[in-house]
Amino acid sequence: MSLFSVIIPTYQRPDELRGCLQRLAPGTQSLSFDQYEVIVTDDEGEGSDTQQLVQEEFPWATWMTGPGRGVAANRNNGAQ
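Request: output the structure for the sequence above.
Response:
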């Protein structure tokens, strides 16, 4: 069980997200990966460049479709 979750709400910014996820990758943190999880909630939805990026380059992160109602709703979606 993870000690905490990192929730990243995003919309059409795969390049910025790549940099963020590179810094959160297992092995780059002082915590072992079993102590945290990373959730990317994407307001662009299925088929987005962000979905492809997460699935291909960062398979350890969880990608999910956001509700499409802005950053606060998207962040809450990830926390759910």
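Helices lie at 14-24, 49-57, 71-79.
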